Amino acid sequence: AQSVTQLDSQVPVFEEAPVELRCNYSSSVSVYLFWYVQYPNQGLQLLLKYLSGSTLVESINGFEAEFNKSQTSFHLRKPSVHISDTAEYFCAVSDLSGGYNKLIFGAGTRLAVHP
Amino acid sequence: DGGITQSPKYLFRKEGQNVTLSCEQNLNHDAMYWYRQDPGQGLRLIYYSQIVNDFQKGDIAEGYSVSREKKESFPLTVTSAQKNPTAFYLCASSIRDTYSYEQYFGPGTRLTVT
After folding, report:
1. In this complex, do B40 and A9 lie within 8 Å of one another by their Cβ atoms?
2. Which of A90, B16, B21, B23 could hold A36 in an S-S bridge, CB 3.0 to 4.6 Å?
3. What is residue A107's three-state secondary structure?
4. CA dihedral of residues B68, B56, B46, A7 (deg, nearest 10)
5. Closest to A33 in 3D by CA, of A98, A87, A106
6. CB of B69 within 8 A of CB of B54?
7. Is the pLDDT reported for residue B56 higher than 70?
């Protein structure tokens, strides 16, 4: 079965600094990968996804993630963060074993952007 | 506006009582899901439904029940058999039950049982 590891439970960073949130998944077979963002007491919003093609995917608000098959990673990066990026970020991978659209989520990384 | 509605946002119950959480979507999505979120554990799948009148257990279905009588609605009942029901519950839907379609999430219901 698939599993997802988010290596950092919390990441503090100063405003305008770069940030990387790390995500590793367990399977080496074809996967679909997602990053979701959750603001306090809200649901999850899709940030970006990798399905196929270019290994570098971008979101509309400056985040990007790179699919690395050999390292089974899908790290999320932003070159310059804003206070408004403070949220919890979840990496997820589709599990192809159950015959339905099952997402396996990591435990989340809480990004705290300080002025 | 299309989206997923969950109500209420906060719910308080006494131990031993059953409680039903509402989830409605107007996205015309076929598949719907219920997740439980606990601090530091990510999201865990409780139940999912691919079509009306059909649903399957997820990873942590014990103590929960669901129904899918309408395409738009997928209510979750937390029964008194659920040993630790206090959590944040999220409903989601997707266009269809294939791997490449992302899931859309509702705003969540925070259930506190005392």
Report:
1. yes
2. A90
3. coil
4. -130
5. A106
6. no
7. yes
Nearest to A105 among B6, B42, B48 (CB): B42
Chain center to CA of B75: 7
Tokens 């367990």 sit on residue: A26
Distance (Å) of CA A94 to CA A2, B7, B25, B99 = 8, 28, 22, 6
Cβ neighbours of B56 in A, within 8 Å: 100
Which residue in the block uniquely carries the two structure tokens 């963002």?
A37
CA atoms within 13 A on the CB side of A6: 27
Q: Hey, are the CB atoms on B98 and A49 less than 8 Å from each other?
A: no
What DSSP string describes B31-91?
A: EEEEEEE-TTS-EEEEEEEEETTEEEE-TT-TTEEE--SBTTB--EEE-TT-S---EEEEE
Q: What is the mean pLDDT of residues B51-72?
A: 95
A9-60 pLDDT, tens digit each: 999 999 999 999 999 998 766 688 999 999 988 899 999 999 888 889 989 8
Cβ separation B102–A49 shorter than 8 A? yes
- Is the minimum CB–CB distance between A49 and chain B shorter than 8 Å? yes
Q: What DSSP designation does B16 have?
A: T
Tell me if B99 and A96 make a contact (CB, 8 A cut-off): yes
